[in-house]
Amino acid sequence: MISRSIIEAAPKVLLHDHVDGGLRASSMIEMAQECGYTALPFMDAVQLADWYEVACNSGSLVRYLETFTHTIALMQTREQIVRVAREAVIDNALSGVVYAEFRGAPELFTQKGLSLREVVEAHLAGYAEGVEEAAKLGKKIRVETILCGMRQNDLTLEVAELAIAMRGQGVCGFDIAGPEKGFPPTDHLDAFNLLRENGVPFTIHAGEADGVDSIAKALHECGALRIGHGVRIIDDIHDGVLSPLAEEIRNRQIVLEIAPTSNLQTGAASSYAAHPIGELKRLGFAVTLNTDNRLMSRTSMSREAEEIVSAHAWTLQDLEDVAINAMNAAFISPAERHEIIENQIKAGYKELTHAN
Prior knowledge:
The chain is an alpha/beta fold. The protein has 17 helices and 10 strands. It has one domain (about 5-355): Alpha-Beta Barrel (TIM Barrel), CATH 3.20.20.
């Protein structure tokens, strides 16, 4: 068994983390006091964190998403967004993350007059501050951002246009988020077509709250390069026999952005031991570990790794494989991916292997 200290030190790659789902409970209370927001269920950090964990353990994605009311309310000014983004970088760097793609839907943070672009610029400013502060702590991390459209709303095309305009300025790709069931990705084909025409990569939430048909549409009709969650693909595998869709995803090494704790909370898996990630990795799928929403799941990349190492007897080699899977699918250039893989991931795991 790998020790906790080794797991914490292991280089990690994070592809799927919603910034508005990762606020520090203590920061929420401070920001609420500063702006006069009185709707928080508790004004004690431990109690508030407890409330989030319990509220998100309902097994319902809809109920889970409702808890974002408070975090979004506290990310409506430039100062608030910068703080949240900065702290997200620092928290993940301290959890061993060397590369992160944070994501968020700009339209959620415009209630006090910020434009979509101003929202993105505030996030990028916070990330830059976080990278600088992490470096002072001896932690090197690179951060990019994915802009999300909300699948139940009608701004996805506008957000896609913003992703195209800001690509290379800290924006690396696009996603659609929100309630999956009843809102198929094909509702937003105009946005995906525009992104493809302009060479902007995108991932799509699919196969979390809805079934394999959602994954098929994201992959075949929309052209997703990665699948957000995708754990329902296990429903298309019977006694080790893969359906044509599952076989395609495995053979093409379509990366699955899996977030185990979040999947347990939304009912996509019953336990860490029963989580499909173990079987999917054994069958050769390109699985990755992610946090999804650190506040709601009371988690970190180290905790996700620790739970799966314990439940599925993963080794350091397994963790390295997963980190490389994620890095190979990052929405940056091949040369940049290679540099991080060789100089941070492989070098880091080589050092840990000798130490272990």
